[in-house]
Each structure stands twice: as C-alpha cells, then as structure tokens.
Amino acid sequence: MYVGIDVGTSTVKAAAFDAEGRELAVASRPVDLALHGGFVEQDMDELYGAVVAVLEEVTSRAPDPIELAGLTGQGDGVWLVDAEGRPVRPAASWMDGRAHELVDRWLADGTFEAVFRRTGSAMFPGCPGPLLAWLDSHEPKALDAATAALYCKDMVFQRLTGTGPTTDVSDASMPFLDPRTRTYDNGVVELLGLARRRGLLAPVSDPVATAHTLGEGLPAGTRIANGPYDLPACALGAGVTSPGDGLLIVGTCLASLVATTDLDLAGEPAGLYINTDRPGHWLRAMPAMVGTAALDWVLSTTGVRHEEVDGLLAETPPGANGVRVLPYFAPSGERAPFVEPRLRAELTGVSLESTRADLVRATCEGIGYAARHCLQAAGLTGTLAVCGGGTRSPAWMRLLADVLGRPLRVVEGEVGARGAVLAAAERYGVTLDAEAWTRPTAVVEPDAGRAAYYTEGYEEHLARLAEARGRARA
C-alpha cells in the first residue's frame, strides 16, 4: 500500500493505492481561506490538523500496511515557521494580493524582467519574492522571529517527520532558483532587497528529501518523500513527461504545463519554468490565477448547485447567446500567460433575457479561452491530459475539448497524490508501473463544427482581453 497526501488550497486529501495504482481509499477535509482587503491567509495549525485527520482516516481504511508515502501541496505563498516548525504568523497564500504595488514597481523599473531572465520565473503578488519583501517592510518582527520561509508541503513535512526545514527544486523554482544550476541565485535575492533575509530560504534537497514519520497521521517510521509540489506532481500522475506533451489542471488554479527540454529565457516574461527531478527537463508552466474558483463564484452568486452545471450547459448554445466572461476574478489579478496585477473579471452582453445557463456557459467558455491562451504560450505540441475538479463535469470536458480544438486525455481521481507516490517510489527505488498508474480514464474528442466556432471566439477573447489589460494599466 502507498499513500499520497495532497495539501490543497481549499481541500486536504489523502489517497491510498495498491501496487497497480488502483485508488482504494480517499479521505478529504476542507480548509478555510481568510480573505480581507486583498490579503488571503491560511491557519497553518488548522491545515496541519486536516492533514493528520485525513491520514488517520485513509490508513484506517487501507487493507494492508503502508509501505511509503509521498507528499505534495499547493505552491508559492510564504509559510513562516520557527525552529520547531511552528507557525510565526498565518501563511500568506499564493492567492494573496497585498504585494501588488511592489510587483507594479518592479514591472516599471525592470526588476521583474531581470528576475525572469535569470530564473525563468515571472513573479506575481502571491509568490515568495514579493511577499517576503512586503513582510520585510510591514511586518519585520515576523521575519525576525522565523527561522525559515517554507512552502506549504515543506511545513507539513517538517512537522510529520521532525526534520529541519527543507524544500525541493520544484517549489524553489519560483522565484529564487537558477534553473541551470538548480541552486539559489543570490543576485535575485539582492535584486528584491532581501539579502539580509537570505537565511530564511530553506535548503534545497535535490533529489527530494526523505525521512521517517513520527507517528502523527501515519504509523511511526513510515517512509515519506517531500515533493514535488502539486503542479509537477499532477504532471507525474497524469503521465506528462515527454517533451511537447501537456497537462491542464482544472482546479482552483487553472494550470497549464508542457514538458520541455528547452530553456528559453528570452521570451515574454510570464509563467515559470518548473525544475523537475531530471536535470535538463522542465515543465513550462502557465498557472493562471483562477480556474474553478471563477465558476464557483458565478454559481454561488446565481444560486446554482454544482450538480446542475451539466444540465445548464445543455440549455444554451455555444456563445451563450452573446454573454461573455473574462474570468480574471483573483484579487491579485493575473500571472499567466501574462502578468497584470490589476486586471479584473468582466461580464458583458447581459440583458434581461439572459439566463443562468447563459452565465454558466459563458464562464466555462471564458475559462476555456484562458486555458487555450496559456497552453499556446507554453508551447503545447503533443498530447493533452486534463485533471482536477472540473473533470467531474462531462459536459464541461466536452466544451473544453471544443474550445481547445484537441482531444483530452481525462485522468480522474487524486492525480496529485498519485504523482507524489510515483515521485516517492522513484526516490526510494521502489519499482512501479508508471504506465498503469497514469492511464487515462477517458478520451474526449472535439466536435469539428464547434471547434471551428470557438477558434473565432478565441480571437474575439484575445481582443477583449487586450482592451481590458489597457484599462487595468490606465
């Protein structure tokens, strides 16, 4: 038996698998996000408590002892801990927008581009560079009290194992790691004014760190590996490892990933290059800020339940009777395939004749156009896998296939947890059949006529987006 732990933004999950990759037990717990005035924070103790709870539940239901565990979780943000791994303050989430003025300034003075040219990371307000710089100016005592600025999974790993602070090359990719040397670029630390806080950056374990658990959640002595974080873990879990192949994660974050062996730091600064466990192999990532969160907001505002989405998508035609949605709802704007901290969502074409179905379809179409934009920028040339909560809607998957104009390899279940186990098995020398573990559950083909319609709609989307970006900068 193998256990994968995925510490998500809104839900913590654990899944138990047998040696053939069959998902035998899953446990989950929701966790809160505190939103106030552009700040988005999480209680680390609550989050860790949820991890322990799901592990206790899933191990109690597993028919055999656990051989090893793999850990993954949300990326970015700042998770400040003391020497015992305890929180110094609430974690600042990757969705946090407090540092947008810093990013604006760095965009204007060239710092933003200089960092991208060195690391392949296009900073956004919720990544560690801007957040640490903001905290250094506004909450220096919090940084003084901390011994490490971790990422989410690193905080969990430290508390599960009692080891010292550590991270891996995937999490460290944004924004301090040199993708060629796989070590921190001290020049970037200095560019961001953080030289005196350099000691807070956790040591990078390459390959990922391993340890034995202390006995909370998992039996004491269970072997566990720390990483990669959720985006590359999902790529592993979906079998996206060959250059040119891509993955679309339709989750809280709409993440587009393309496997590559080419490191091009000369293009438009956007997204990031995620370092993988194989030197010379990266994931070109375009993690857009809002995915299912945009649809959730529309559903809650209109009083629609999630189980009604498929029926509503069938009630209105492609184009949603003229209703259009630019789905940039995040308080910190957008970060991929461009960085625009002040960009906001727009809803147009609405009249008294518009229906809830029109609003739902327009939102799903808008998210699809955003995904197409990201995948195009990331350099997709091969097959495309798709995973995440959005895959639970067959109608939305058909719509996405049409909007993207290509077949979708749908990989259902706990894909991030699956990838975390595969990474742990590789680290420990445990042989698993990766092809069997990553086999798609379905392939959704696009309809030629609707795909042609959406190709025109995509060009309209890009034009409307350009106008909205102009307004955001005014």
TrEMBL record:
Domain Carbohydrate kinase FGGY N-terminal: 1-213
Keyword terms of this UniProt record: Kinase, Transferase
GO term, biological process aspect, one: carbohydrate metabolic process
Sequence ranges assigned to domain Carbohydrate kinase FGGY C-terminal in this UniProt record: 270-425
Keyword Glycoprotein: no
SUPFAM superfamilies reported in the protein's UniProt record: Actin-like ATPase domain
The organism's place on the tree of life at top rank: Bacteria
Keyword Ribonucleoprotein applies: no
One Pfam family named in its UniProt record: FGGY_N
GO MF assignments: kinase activity
PANTHER family named in the record: L-XYLULOSE_3-KETO-L-GULONATE KINASE, SUGAR KINASE
Family membership: Belongs to the FGGY kinase family.
Protein name as annotated: Carbohydrate kinase
Protein's organism: Streptomyces cyaneochromogenes
